[in-house]
Amino acid sequence: MHLRWILVCACLVLLAPQARAQKSVVGGYGPRIGFSSGPDQLVFGGQMIFGEIAPDITFDPSLEFGFGDDMTIIALNLDGHYHFAIEGSRWRPYAGAGIAISFVSFDNGPGNGDDSDTEVGGALILGAGVPTAAGNRFFSELKLGLGDVPDLKIMVGWNFRM
User: Fold this and answer.
1) Could you give the C-alpha distances from 160 to 77, 114, 118, 123, 133, in angstroms and in order?
2) Could you tell me the pTM of the whole model?
3) Domains, the chain, ranges and CATH?
4) Largest CA-CA distance found in the chain, in angstroms, rounded
5) Which of 6-15, 21-30, 111-120, 149-158 has the lowest mean pLDDT?
């Protein structure tokens, strides 16, 4: 009787990491593209995903370049995401928040010179990712800006496994 319980417990311990690994978010890197509103810009860049720094939590820094609305923005985003598991679905929705440091160059028109500024703000993030057959990850994301950052960003991207 005791031997049976020991075997059951041993099997659960051995299977638990494998079950957890199937649900985990894998680290990666890749491109991202989209648009922002307030200012209205085309935005592209790249990001990294640093696996799970805690259960279901990833650190996702990105570097983005925005063009349009008579300005150029280079933004360093330091985002954290909490990933939700949906039973029976490969999609992993996530919610998060982040801090952005933006280097803004304003085009004041011919003969008026250019101005630049450094701005800091935050974002609330909603998104979802899905693994591909090759083991990479496709994602889509909505960012709501807080402070001196674009009011809204809609981004899509592709992450390749590290």
Assistant:
1) 19, 38, 31, 24, 12
2) 0.81
3) 26-161 (2.40.160.20)
4) 89
5) 6-15
